[in-house]
Structures are given as C-alpha cells and as structure tokens.
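Collaborator request, handled under Task 6.
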Amino acid sequence: MMLYSCRCLEAMIKYLTLWKKEGQEEPYVSLTRKKMLIDGQEVLIEWEVGHSIRTLAMHRNAYKRMSQIQAFLGSVPQLTYQLYVTLISAEVPLGRAVLMVFSLMSVTYGATLCNMLAIQIKYDDYKIRLGPVEVLCITIWRTLEITSRLMILVLFSATLKLKAVPFLVLNFLVILFEPWVKFWRSGAQMPNNIEKNFSRVGTLVVLISVTILYAGINFSCWSALQLRLADRDLVDKGQNWGHMGLHYSVRLVENVIMVLVFKFFGVKVLLNYCHSLIALQLIIAYLISIGFMLLFFQYLHPLRSLFTHNVIDYLHCVCCHWHHRRRAENSEPSFDAETRQSVV
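Structure tokens returned to the collaborator:
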C-alpha cells in the first residue's frame, strides 16, 4: 500500500511538471519504433518519447496490473460472498446491490484489461488500437463469463454447504500448481534477471505472487495468457488455441456438473423460481460468452491477420480429426469381415 501511494504521488508530481512545461521541448528524449497494420500492410512508425512521458507510461502500466490484482483478489471474493448472502437471505438491500454492481464492474474491467495486456505482451513490436466495437465485444464476453461462473459457484456452494469446500479448494490448487508442475517436468532452471535488483529469493517470491494471481484469474475466467515459469517473460507469447480450448472445455464440464448438483439437490432458496430454468439460463449465458469470445478472435482481433491459424481452422482441424477417427473405427469391422471371408 505504501509503494502504491508513493507511485501515485510521483505520478502526480510528473503530471504537474509536464503541465507547467507545456510547449517546451524536453532535453531527454528517446526514439520508439513500433509496427502498425494499415490496410493489411505492416508500416514501421517511430516517434520521440520524453523521459517524463516514459515514466508516466510506466506508472500507467503499473496501475493496470494493480487493478487486476484488486479485481481478482479483492472484488471476486467480495462479489461471490455478497451473492451467497443474497441467495441465503432471499433479500437484496440497496447497499448490497450497489456493492455487487461495483464489484462486477471492477472484475469486468480487470478481465478486459487481461485481454488488452495479453495482446500487448504477445505482439510487443506492434502498436495496437482497440475500437469501441472490439471493447464492447470483450466486455459482453467477460461479463457473461464471470457472472455465469460466479453464480454457478454460489449455487453449488449453497447446495452442498461445507461439502463443496474440498471441490473448490482442489479446483484452485490444480490451477495454482499446474505451471509449477510443467516447470518441474521441463527440467528448466529458475529464470534469472526478472528484475535487476532481485535475488533468487526475491525472484521466487515474484513467481509465487504471479502464480497466485494467475490462479485467481483462471478460477473465475480465462486469463488470456498461459504462464510459463521457465521463460524470462513468464508467459507463452504464442497463440495457443489448444490451451484456450482446454480451459473452456474443462470449465464448461465443471459448470454443467455444478448446475446439475444444484438442480437435483438444491434447496428452495429462490422463491417462485424453477431450478431447471435457472440452470438452463446459466449454461446458456456461459455458452453465449464463449460465442462472443470466438467472435472476437475470428473477426474483431486487431492483429488477426497475423494468426497462422484462426478459430475456424482450429475447429475444422478438431472436427476433421474426430471424423477421420470415426471413419477408421467404422472401417475396421468391415476389413475384419473381408479378411475372414477370404480365409473361408
């Protein structure tokens, strides 16, 4: 908290300094080069960036990451708890409703930033601009994904009470230790020089903190990045369709199981509402969020022309593999029958 306050104070001083020196040239500048896609063509652009502007950009990036920490390690538990209390008490006071709305806005903003930061990290050489349509698509996708996921978790917890704790804890621990298991299986060494002044203990603390944040994000929604502890950048910069497909497939199966538990064993906590209708609406909302996600990556991603394969190619590959496998299984009995016939 002290570090965050010092950063805010330094940013305010920088802003006041720039405001006083408006119109004056800064003596310390550096050239920044980025690629930009214009009508499908790569164009190299460069511009001068002053020392003060670069410092403010550093603070801005730090605030973005701080908002993610606050959203997923602060607002998600708060929103989940308020939903659970509302479900049990069957009443929604105005203060609690306002708190839940602001918590949902915070989580949605954090999840939207996840997408934007993931694009910036993966395509660091490019200058990226997201239009209103792209941001709207991401916001709808993330809002539906988070609300449906948290509602399912709350209904599942309200149904099983303490019996739901082992399942939820195991779910979180699997996400938490998955990057470490991959790191140990790869046989790689711990990355050095994540920061110049960090010792090995400091590096380990940073890796643990990043892993906890990564698990917190993936517990409620997709993080848009795959953590890779063996790499100095800590993330996989490739467009990993398999990781995204696996995440949403596993989450969909989990959500269906938890919704079925609520449908068949849930108590009548919601008066005048049909459990089957609630379960169906939540699964449909999650499927719609997946639809908006596919829409974004197929048609609205700012650098989709750089993809080696897009969403349709990946789905076509999966469907073709499944179709060929079924044809092979169907052809084996006929081949065995022909073999027996020839022997006779």
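The cover message to the collaborator said: "The beta strands are 29-38, 41-50. The first strand starts at residue 29 and ends at 38. Please let us know whether this matches your experimental observations."
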